[in-house]
Amino acid sequence: MDFKKLLAYQKAFDLAMLIFEISKTFPKEETYSLTDQVRRSSRSVCANISEAYRKRIYPKHFISKLTDADGENSETNTWLDFALACKYISNEDYVDLSEIGNEVGKLINFMINNPEKFGVKVE
Question: Considering the entire predicted model, what is its pTM?
Answer without folding.
Answer: 0.95
